[in-house]
Amino acid sequence: MRRRVIVAAAVVLAGMSPGIAQRVPAPVPPGQAGRGPNPAAPAAAKGTGLILGRVIEAAAKQPIPRAMVTLATHRSDLSSSERVPAASTGAFDAQGRIVAPSGVAASPTAPPPSDVSFRATVECTADGQFVFSDIPAGHFDLSARSSGFGGPPVILDVGTGQRIGDASIVLTRAVTIGGRVLDEAGDPIVGVDVQVLPRRLAVNGDFDSRSDLLRTDDRGMYRLVDAAPGDYTALVTSSYVTSGNQMPDVLAVLGGGLSTSGLASRLSATGSFHVGNAEIQPWGPLARLVPPPAPGARLRVYPSTFAPDAITPSAARIVSLPPGAEQLDVDIHPRLIETYRVSGRLSAPSGPVSHEIVRLIPDGGSTVTSVSGTTDPLGRFTILGVFPGHYTIAADRAWIDHIPLAISRPLTVGANDVDGIDLVLRRQQ
Amino acid sequence: MTAASRVRRALCLILFVATATLAARGAVQDTASPTLAGAVVADDQTAHPVRRALVSMVDSASGIGRTEMTDEQGRFSFSVLPRARFSLTVTKLGFVTTYYGSTRAGQKPAATIELAAGQRNMSVTIKMPRTAAIAGHVRDRRGRPVAGALIEVLETAGPRTAPLLNTARAFSGQPRTVTDLHGEYRFWGLAPGTFVVRFTLAESADGHRVTTPGDIEWALAQLRLGSTLPTAARSTPRPAAANAIPSGTVYYPEALDLPGAWPIVLRAGETRSDIDVVVSIKTVVRD
Q1: Number of other residues whose CB lies within 10 A of the CB of residue A109
Q2: Rounded CA gap, B97 and B100, in Å?
Q3: Does residue A253 sit in the same domain as residue A294?
Q4: Which of A33, A185, A253 sits opposite B202 (nearest CB)?
């Protein structure tokens, strides 16, 4: 026993001093490699519990050899940096259902995070068996990872000195989803972000819950590996703005498609660039187009687009992926559509309000992102690139004489420009 | 969602039209100004127009720049001052950043272009090489994919020399990449050149314990003693831990240091998709 105590002391020391890190108490599984060890991890708590178990494939009930198994104190507040990438899109929840990628499956009964945490990762034997020993009493997540497989963590309680001999972790063969994003000329759209969405999220309009964006490569290709089996679609978020009519056809390309590193060095001191007679400032709160298109001219915009070319979730291509399936043809073809202009004037009881942002917030369930404009010294604003639809137009957080003022009201945009909106800020209750 | 992606999304599709500073630009479009017109095409047999590329013109005297985006036919035009001296640079993801008139793809400096006295118009065609890519797998000695391995691509001066230049000039995509959960990676955006590839297992720390048959036997023996037992009653200590520790750095194909790395020569637009490495996992037995 004396020897064991010495080892425990060495663990604590190693946790504090990287220089003698013969044993760091919290090994990081390969799935989290590159994210770096968590320097804030507290020293592992020690106990006398024991778990013997096996990792099994769901369909054939065969052991999965050499899987990596992690036993960790259950936490309901895992930060995104602690999550394995595969678990963040189309993750498997504790019931084996696909859950929202933001990890909303956290158990509502989870105890509050404890200062004392235990975390250990072991590699299974060729028979898929694993052992954890010296486990303190507590509430744990037991999870396994093996390339090409995925599954929910097993949540289990270990009493003081308890020995569990039959823990099993069931993994399902994971799926791979990918495709290309191609513009109207068939050219790849490079460096744009794609979301792979479980159908349930797409149908519910829950587009913001994803935490992973898959950036297209030089072929315009994106790919998500090790996702849960299920029904999916893919969405590319609108990032391009173009114009028609009196402007050159392509007026601006914002966001994706431009390399931020390359772009920053290429732009002038103000960070703007020109297309024909228009100056485009694509970055920051003063992003703008000068001059705006002439009245009647239409900005043509790539809307947020589901595979293959749908702008509503109901028209999206849904791919059904059984365990082990790979589908790499989920291409997305964004198409230019015409947009409209919303303009008006913002004032307070004291007069025009300058340099305030006016937002158009789309109603729920829409893939349209918010658009906004900034008022000029006369309180005038113009918002370009507005799709037809139902919105709330709002200005707020305006502190004039230390009184919070705001205005918001519904606005419907049809197939016409909407001009002459008069917004008056009011004191908030 | 990361902060960066929030920013990207916020920028999406949105044009914030600020103050009505509509003036001034008309004056610049003075019909008396000479015009520099050009087209950007892919530097390959297709000579495909490069659409939506950013063309920057920097005035040699003032250092002031202006940037235009190419249209659907890859065309652009600038109004320039009479007898202007300037340089042109073009960027587009998937293509090598091109310094017009440079002697080597992807490298500064651009040549200085000068308008002759009285010259009204000038026309240039800028050929952009496509970027090259290196792709492959990272596996351990058991053939399992290694996720999250860091990949860096370093340019060397030539096939037989190893002094490293910095990577900044070599890519126009990402400065580094990591393997996905299948151990696969694709490093794209490279200018033509000669490269070595370095793989780093960033988190190597002290690895993970490898469960052995001895561990299983020990655990079964413990379980036979009962489902709960206080520490003092434990009969035998667990066998010593065999920890597997992914090693730090490997240069393609299997070198531990730079002189052993194999240079990879890439032409414009070429993809080498067989740059696979096996990383060694060191096993350390501890008691």
Answers
A1: 9
A2: 9
A3: yes
A4: A33
Report pLDDT digits (tens) over A162-203: 999 999 999 999 999 999 999 888 888 887 778 898 888 777
CB-count exposure of residue A20 (10 Å: 0-12, 13-18, 19+): exposed
Domain boundary among B106, B128, B150: B128
Whether residue B247 sits in one domain with residue B188? yes
Q: Residue A44 — φ and ψ, nearest 5°?
A: -65, 140
Task: Tell me the mean pLDDT in the region A240-248.
Answer: 31
- Chain centroid to Cα B44, Å, comes to 22
User: In this predicted complex, what is the ipTM?
Assistant: 0.79
Which domain covers residue B178, as residue numbers? 132-205+243-286
pLDDT reported for residue A170:
94
Q: How many CB pairs under 8 A join A and B?
A: 316
Considering the domain architecture, whether residues B84 and B140 belong to the same structural domain is answered as: no
Range of the domain at A372: 341-429
Cβ atoms of B207 and B245 within 8 Å: the answer is yes
Determine the Cα–Cα distance for residues A345 and A347; give it in Å rounded to an integer.
7
Residue B90 exposed, middle or buried by CB count within 10 Å (0-12, 13-18, 19+): buried
Is A143 found in the same domain as A64?
yes
B91 shares contact with chain A (CB less than 8 Å):
yes
If one compares A313 and B47, the residue with the highest pLDDT of the two is B47
Q: Do residues B165 and B274 share a domain? A: yes
Cross-chain CB nearest to B8 (options A27, A255, A382): A255
CB contact, 8 Å: A86 with chain B? Answer: yes
Mutate to test the interface with B, among A83, A147, A206, A218 (most CBs of B within 10 A): A218
B144 has a chain A CB within 8 A of its CB: yes
